[in-house]
Specification:
Elements lengths: L4 E4 L10 H10 L2 E4 L4 H9 L6 E5 L1 H14 L3 E5 L5 H5 L5 H10 L2 E9 L2 E3 L2 E5 H12 L5 H12 L6 E5 L2 E12 L20 E7 L5 H10 L9 E6 L3 E5 L3 E6 L2 E6 L2 E13 L8
Parallel strand pairs: 1-2, 1-3, 3-4
Antiparallel strand pairs: 5-6, 5-15, 7-9, 7-13, 8-9, 8-12, 9-10, 10-11, 12-15, 13-14
């Protein structure tokens, strides 16, 4: 068995390697490699090697692709935050390089469930509605604007374009402006919407932002600010331990999977725990 591998965009904007990441890899005996222009090819190559684990430095989109490939190949991964939000790595307690080093040194691992939408893996969330188009605009703007600025401009452009759509879930039809599905149970209060307490829970958190009354976005946001989202009349929510089918008009729909936009053929079938990926943990899993 050869040395562990770390995959990263090893070159920064000024053309030099990230010294902190280089030192981290050298201290832990990890072979640092540049992902390059073909993420899937780099992941497939690493997965084919006989290594103890592969550390993947990147954001949620990169982690999503890595989790899918490594789950299929039975490879242990170490998600290291290197993107904008890093929800997946942080949900695992892997907030920075120091904590990731602790995970390497402990050698402890656990299996994390991956959700599926029509054959596409997602590690955090899948979103239908206005959000995917906003993400597409944001990514186009990032070619000429800093990331945070691109995000703000994209949000401003799309905040007034939240067009309602019809969706059928569990035999009930809803007029909605967003369908949001979480891999596991997520929070309901401000600051907790992207957080989950148990990354091993094998359920889907399904939320429909309703558009059946005037000013639907304002109403649900007001309930969020008042910490009343759990009892809101403007949000339908349920937790499912099995597959959930959503039927919409049209044959295709854009879905944002971990903030990466994918075109999906309808109907949409969301499946919890469709696969599992083994990840290194910062501490041994709690006994059950």
């Amino acid at each position: 068995m050869t040395r562990p591998i770390a995959l990263a965009n090893a070159k920064s904007g000024n053309g030099s390697a990230d010294p902190e990441l280089e030192q981290w890899c050298a201290r832990l005996g990890i072979d640092l490699r540049d992902i390059g222009d073909d993420l899937e090819a780099a992941l497939e190559k690493a997965a084919a090697e006989d290594v103890p684990f592969v550390a993947v430095v990147g954001g949620d989109g990169t982690q999503r692709t890595a989790a899918r490939i490594f789950a299929e190949r039975g490879v242990t991964m170490l998600p290291v935050p290197g993107g904008t939000r890093n929800h997946f790595a942080k949900a695992l307690g892997l907030s920075d390089l120091d904590v990731a080093a602790t995970a390497v040194e402990s050698g402890s691992s656990r299996d994390i469930p991956l959700a599926d939408l029509n054959g596409e893996t997602f590690v955090n969330t899948a979103v239908i509605g206005w959000y995917p188009e906003m993400v597409r605009t944001r990514e186009r703007l990032r070619t000429r604007l800093p990331g945070p600025v691109a995000a703000m401009v994209a949000f401003a452009r799309h905040i007034g374009r939240m067009f309602p759509f019809e969706v059928e879930l569990a035999g009930e039809r809803h007029r909605a402006w967003m369908l949001w599905v979480g891999n596991g149970r997520f929070g309901l209060d401000p600051g907790e919407l992207a957080e989950r307490d148990d990354v091993t829970e094998q359920v889907l958190d399904v939320r429909v932002a309703l558009a059946d009354k005037k000013f639907p976005r304002t109403r649900v946001l007001w309930d969020l600010v008042r910490r009343r989202l759990a009892d809101s009349d403007h949000l339908e929510r349920f937790v499912a331990a099995g597959p959930v089918t959503a039927r919409l008009h049209g044959t295709h729909v854009a879905a944002a999977l971990d903030a990466e936009v994918v075109d999906i053929t309808t109907p949409l079938v969301f499946t919890p725990a469709a696969n599992h990926v083994r990840v290194l943990a910062a501490a041994p899993p709690a006994a059950t």
